[in-house]
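Teaching assistant here, posting this on the class forum so everyone can see the example we discussed in section. The complex has three components, and the goal was to see what a joint structure prediction looks like when all of them are supplied at once.
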Amino acid sequence: MLSRTAAHLYWIGRYVERAEFTARLIEATIRLDSLAHTPAGKGAWESALAVVGAEWSFAATGAEQGPAPVSRYMTLDTTNPNSIRSCLDHARSNARAVRTALSREAWEAINRAWLGLRNTHNTSGGPGTLALLDQLKAEARGFEGALHRMLRNEASFFVRLGATMERADNTARLIDVKYHLLLPEGEKVGGPIDRDQWTTILQTVSAVTSYRWLYREGLRPRLVVDMLVLRKEMPRSLAASAEEVVSLLNLIGKRTGLQGEADRLARLRQAALNRATLTGIIQSGLHEWLSAFIADNARLDTAIAAQFRFA
Amino acid sequence: MRLIIQHATIYSFAEPQSRLVQLLRVTPSSYAGQNVVDWQIDVDCDARLKAGRDGHGNETTMLYVNGPIRRIRVAVAGEVLTDDKAGMVGGSPEPLPPILYTRPSPYAAPDRAIAEFAAAALADAGDPLGAMHALMAGIHRRIAFDQAPPANRVRTAAEAFAADKGSYLDHAHVMIAAARSLGLPTRFVSGYLFRSNDDGPRRAGHGWAEVHVPDYGWIGFDAVNDHCPDANYVRVATGLDHGEAAPLLGARTGGGSEYLEVSVSVTAPEVTA
Amino acid sequence: MTERRAFDEIMGQGDEADGRPEFAALARWIRETPLGELQRRQAAAEAAFRTLGITFAVYGEEEASERIIPFDIVPRVFTAGEWDGLQAGLEQRVLAINAFLDDVYGERRILSEGVVPAELILANPQFRTQVAGARPPHGIYAHICGIDLVRTGPQDFFVLEDNARTPSGVSYMLENREAMIRLCPELFEMFAVRPVDTYPDTLLETLRSVAPGHGGNEPVCVLLTPGHFNSAFYEHSFLADNLGIELVEAADLEVDDDFVWMRTIEGRVKVDVIYRRIDDDYIDPLWFRPDSMLGIPGLISAYLAGNVALANAPGTGIADDKAIYSYMPEIVKFYSGGEARLPNVETWRCREPEALRYTLDNLDKLVVKLVDGSGGYGMLVGPTATAAQIEDFRAALIAEPHRYIAQPTLALSTVPTLVEQGVAPRHVDFRPFCLTGTGGVKIVPGGLTRVALREGSLVVNSSQGGGTKDSLVLAPPRERQAQSQFQFQGRG
């Protein structure tokens, strides 16, 4: 397979995943905003921006912080390189360049999502936005389904590899921000706002029900972290992502007969996660641990690009 | 005359480049009036060099470097013995007939102003050789020589003719365009010039025009100095215009900007000593 | 000329209802198939083309802005005898084109012997100085030629244009046939039609045959496209898929050590043959246009070193230049030793004073073309032009006569075509595709028929409202058929 084709496929995976994650994040934030009393609402949108690393770029637009401007910025703004619209633009143009490598169904899902957003020019940031986000999530699910029905060849492996790498990054950022930025001054850990915020996180990764299945106790921050970092049963957890990256790289390696730096880094990370304990992570400092994870993930991304000659 | 040439080009990149590919036309050939005694190309990093020859008969060298690379120095040095032939070129390898050099080329397409300028020169002089000398003198008077090395973008002959100062490229391209507008085969020559009153290394090589004059053959015309090349000139490469005879053309894979540093020195030990 | 009805390839020139006896069955099919049924099938074919993405025109923001070239459901047919004559003429022509290219980029015998004026070749920008003196692997330059033919009578075929650079349209030959077999199977029972689907294999075999050297490994061939925004991208991806070779863009290739490499996830793979669909000007920014974003730096160096075959080779444009066209009969004779089997359309070279005078005197009867124009632009069709258009051309001709040639307005043959009012004759031309490798010239029996859909129009270019038809070549009568198929397999 041409390196360029592989690169396009990988980025399709990353951008569709990023678009879907952003959609979930906005959706959960709208919910949190409507539950909480001020000033938690403002904090909700602030932290949504922090999760996607867009506090500064949003501030630079000069817009007021608030539901409508932030959700518009994260959904539709073309000057925001990570808005859902920008992600879908990138996903679609990558898909168009390798259209013959994708199944028709997979292409159509991306194209429909792109078309769906193309004529939308405003979002309220309130419940009205939810319908739009629902539609986007449905298209993303459709894409994922189409991907699983595609031939099990390098093409599907590279898309999934991109999606998994992106997912690991997104989940890590989500936990990190909650742990450090969210709670308004004067609010108690374990208070109602705190609880709402943890629920929001679970909603963002669509894991509210899973949590109840896994843990008999009520909502405990420790356990949410445990679930999102260490539980392999949870598809969006860091451990599950790390494992999937290793197995996708193995599948690609079996086809090409080559292994490299990316395989080594991915296996190291998987081994480290297997050894890790929740107590150990929290004692070493969750923020520090997550920052290291995000940096490792970026290194692995670079190694993947080098190993398959993306650039 | 014995001329010693040292020509170094340094490229520095703001970001590391993953690959470099360069096409070099920096090797002069020997013929009547020019004898290359010694000539070398040195590159200061791991590179693969492949020699070849282009359609004009120029010796070419392809340079391939795999990165990451932030800086590369390509140094050319050698020794050439030259004779004064009053601009006449004899015995040089000529794989292509003169008629080819009547066609317009991107940098040397004549516009109306240049064509009128050339026609007037021919009318005054009466014969092609006289007209060429008149054109050379006319361009010399009209365009002041600018010491600064040629800008990133090479100007067309028409742009150069409209300006009041310019580089050797501008002088040569106007000369080529003017001579071609009279139907005479004309080409660009890149090379080196020894200046006895030299004030240290320069930041560019030199270039001039050659016209195929009926009954005489190829003759060089250097409008910068209003002078036909003599023993102070070393011919390196020829082409329809600078685009086909440039000493270094490069392509790179990688982002960021690029800084270019050129240093050329031509010395004549017997003269300077 | 205009009073006489043009020769119709199916109906002939007579008034018999069934037209030419050899195609009587087709004439009946046209007459007896209900118009609505023909329209339905044509719409079905066009819908299929749209779904497949066989589109032309610029890739815009909207999928809907892509056009398909209109397809006509009524095929054009050649008898076995007609095809044999064409094939012999085409073979002679493309062999001469290759010999001419080898000569002008090498010894230049044809110039020193004065057959073609040296200035016309050497001072022509299509003569590429970059590759002068270089010989491609196996001495073959124009591996893929699309020769445009027109017809004025039963035996009267003329070459209108030689396309020796990157001729396109072969995907229409293949897709039109697919559509016809699906939608009009009865025609293929009615006639023994020779297949065209051998084209991809024949092309691949041709490309492989011209790989440099004779290394034991199977040569690696790729198709180089400018990218998915190019108007012919569909054809590029269609051909790459059908040949089973990689469809590459410039970024996929790199030159190192004067060899060409393809970047894959398994590492670098050496490339031996590049079927390139990028013009010379854009193919290598170091040797051609420095502003090209589509090119591969050093590709020409690899070619000059003999390490890669480019199909077609750089510089083939000198063979199909309109200024050279009028010399083609002499060129064919010079290299083949015999008269050209396929004549040119009579051509006045306006650079010659007498020809210019004749042209200026007869502008209302002639077709005047710019020698460096293409696609039907820069062209005057005298009989249909307005007085103002004629005067514009007169001025242009007087100012720059060397840029123009003139030809008589030919009574181009027609083929029955489905138009709004029913089935009516429309003018056509024909582009067969000739492949030249070390095994000689191979021509798949078929080609691209372009049809001018407007009544009376002679302009078939798709940019000017032309459409396409399937072109059926009939197998020879039974006893000869077995023999010729055997020969075909023997060569394949």
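For the discussion questions: Residues 128-142 of chain B form the longest helix (15 residues). The interface with chain A takes residues 18, 253 of chain B (CB under 8 Å). Think about how each of these relates to the inputs above.
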